[in-house]
Amino acid sequence: MTRAPLVVLGLGLALAPACGGKKNARDPIGVTEKNPPDGGAAAARKMDGTRPPASSFIATVGDKSIGPFATRRDGVGMAVYVGPADTGARRVVSVPLAEDGETRGDAHVVAPVSADVTALAVKPTHGTGAGFLAAWTSLTERGEALTIVGIDDAGAPRGAATELARTPDDIVWFDILPCAKGAVVVWAEETRGGDANVLSVGIEPDGRMRGVPVRIARGVLGWQVAAAGDALGLAVVMTTGEPQKKGSARAGSLSWLRLDADGRPAGAPIVVTPKPIVSGDVDVARVGARFIFAWTDRTGSESEVTLASVGDDGAVQPPHRALSAAGGSALVGLTAGPAGGLLAWDAPNRRGRPTRRVYLAHIDPLGELDGRAAAVDLAGRAAPEVAATQTGFAISGAVRSAAGAALPTFVRFDANLTAVQTEPLVFGPADERDPAQLAWGLACTGDRCTILTASGDPAKVRAVDLVARTTSFAAPVAPSVPPDAPRLGVVTTLAQGEPYADVAVAKVGDGTVVALLTTALDDAAQRKNGAPSAGATLTTRQLDAKGLPVGPPSTITTRALTIGGVSIAAGGAPEDGAAIAWVAREGGDPQVHVTRVDKRGKRQNDIQLTTTKGDAADVAIAWAGGGWLVAWVDWRGGNGEVFATKVGPDLSRIAREERITDAPGDASDVSLLARGDAAWLAWSDPRESPADGFADIFVTQIGAKDAKRLGEEQRVLASAAHSRSPVLAGTTDGVAIGWIEEAPSGADAQSSVAHGAMIARLDERGKPRGGLFKVRAAGDGFPTALTLEGTGTGLRGVLARGDREQLELDAVEFVANDAGPRAFPLVTLDGPPSLDVSLVLFDGALYYYDDGPEPGDRRARRAGILWKK
Q1: 221-265: per-residue pLDDT in tens?
Q2: What is the pLDDT of residue 525?
Q3: Where are the beta strands (DSSP E) in 777-819?
Q4: Helices (H) and strands (E) in the chain, counts
Q5: Long-range contacts of 85-91 (CB under 8 A, 24+ apart)
């Protein structure tokens, strides 16, 4: 259930951890240190854009303190925290602040509290005689209590504290909504059944309770409140009684309950979605004349950020998936202001990487993304804060400095989400910089923002005045992608739960058949002892014309060998289905199999293609003139050589097995492309250095009728690096080949010119024409895998590259007569940088697999790509 809401429309967090420090820290009451060691706020405002922002000292807080938290009303600010007294008791302390965060007077003790205070919040009240309201929860003998106190603009209490609720249940959340009649306090009491009851009560501007608390919702799993002008509302996630899908997150339906100024329901709840698809936190913001709801839907195979909205007339815009993100998406925040709405999200990071990318997108009143976007690279996993300004938006979070330290940083964006101000939260003179260790409570009024920071032990808390100004610090934003760059489209999970090793794709009729091969060790010890070795599983999945799965997967075999790989090719007509080449151990030796499947991917018949002693691996298959050509690497002669043959539509053999190569060393990575009366064959071959295994890429052509070699083998490039993983692609004016020049361990991707992904166009003899092209990746790391597809006279492709932290996919475009291929960042995978990922680009869509740290994170996917050329 939701324990603490995200920041929405300036509403602060209701639950907060204590701010650490040494025991017996000095008493903060009566502190008169108005100017911090950096020379004071006034002096800091005169500094140029390389100097720290203006800041003001608020208090020193020690062990078992909560807060401070700060809020503002009409230029008058108030900070409140819970701290210890000299006697060992605890107390609620207020510090009056000016608009720029400087203290306006001495601190005040507004209420004594017990040692068992668990949470604190402060907000303004509105109306005649407006002031501020502090609320806190504390443990009781048999439950928990919620208490409030009114505070005047000078920071003094306006009366004794009032206990709003005392319950045997846990008060797991509360919030304060300012309104025209003062404020409304809303809270949630968790029952023993795991759901909660939500209650509310109206509060006078001076902090006195107006009426009595009323229960406004029961059986609640999640909640969030929002206020905009005179409009107040509560979003509630309700239990539905429907059974939960096994393994899925607990979810419920979503309703919107409008509240009046006394905190009572103003009409019947508006059902946003009756289906139990809302799990986790719900965020709410008012964009235009509508309230937008955002949450992370965790009920499917992928977590997805989902949006819905309700207008002032009660009209509901039903839930819709906001994003197309490989690996899913998770909500970070939602805010809105005069510049519109802002949605922030990230990709679920299952590996706990030290950095993550948070994406920002501008949204319209219906929750649709309008194309304005940015991305910020942050350190750690702590949630950043987002806020709306008069002319744009702001975000605060930890950013990795050049020295490697995580430093709290403020970034301001304009309405087009262009970063216009970056402020690392450091203080003091240049030779004695004091970096903030913690920052929280980002709030903006107009274009002026404030944030609280803490550093030191005991913790010294500052209020930072973040006025709009020009700074010289580089914004931690990801490089902008050109408008004509390919972008990720809809991502579909085809299978999950298994460690996948290879993927192959064929178009059959109006649909597509995908073949997936899992990873399995071929255990020699088990075979020696007579025990069956666990084989890899080969399955197929039928997709419709839109790329969506049709029906369940079909299992072809559970005894395949991963080393053999998998290849699939459609027949000459839909009724011919497709044929799949794979390898299994027969009589102690790996042997090539060919299985025919129908258009749904269901097995029709199977043959064992090879029978000779010796290993077989690296299969490839292609349809060519009335049958299928099959190629593979065979060890029957003692080392790995490329062989080929042909089978008919019924899989009967119609050609002899032809030995294509005869050279030292073991060939590998066979690729096959049929073109009219011939087929191109490419492979990796270490014949020049068989002992070291450093290979070059070779190509030749074989006959479409009999698989006989039609000409001499041609080496594409004699290089010092190990060349591997060739891929062939046909264009209207010929054939292209791509491959990987593998980088040695420790090589620098930025300075190396001899390693990476290469592309060449081949003449009729197999020699490069027009020169060789190295693909410059879109980011750090060396390319580790490549797939290509012809588009008229041009090429497009996708490459994988691994840097020190993560594995990225880049989209590649190569247009005829261009200077060379261009790469654009496409998506970050969950798998480690070392993952040997298989990629297939087919009809513009990418098929691949990914590998998270848990078995449930392993997925095979289809990603649509929006190509611009």
Answers
A1: 889 999 877 789 999 998 876 655 555 567 889 999 999 999 999
A2: 46
A3: 782-791, 794-802, 807-814
A4: 2, 61
A5: 85/27, 85/109, 85/112, 86/27, 89/113, 89/115, 90/64, 90/114, 90/115, 90/117
